[in-house]
Amino acid sequence: MKSESKSANEKDFQEVRCSKVFEAMRQCCLKHKPISLVCDGYSLEPREFAPVTDGPLKE
């Protein structure tokens, strides 16, 4: 039987912690979108993130 509960890593993922990587990808795509298949469909708008929470998530 498959467990339906998410692992601790899935529950604790916070996109804001990857903000530097997202911004680097956005900058790269701003420059190379016309010739890059990787950037096809990638949003060039700056991302907005929820604040970081280091405490446990409340359900």
From TrEMBL:
Database matches in InterPro entries: Cys_alpha_HP_mot_SF (IPR009069)
Top-level taxon: Eukaryota
Protein's name according to its UniProt entry: Putative vacuolar protein sorting 26, vps26
Organism: Operophtera brumata
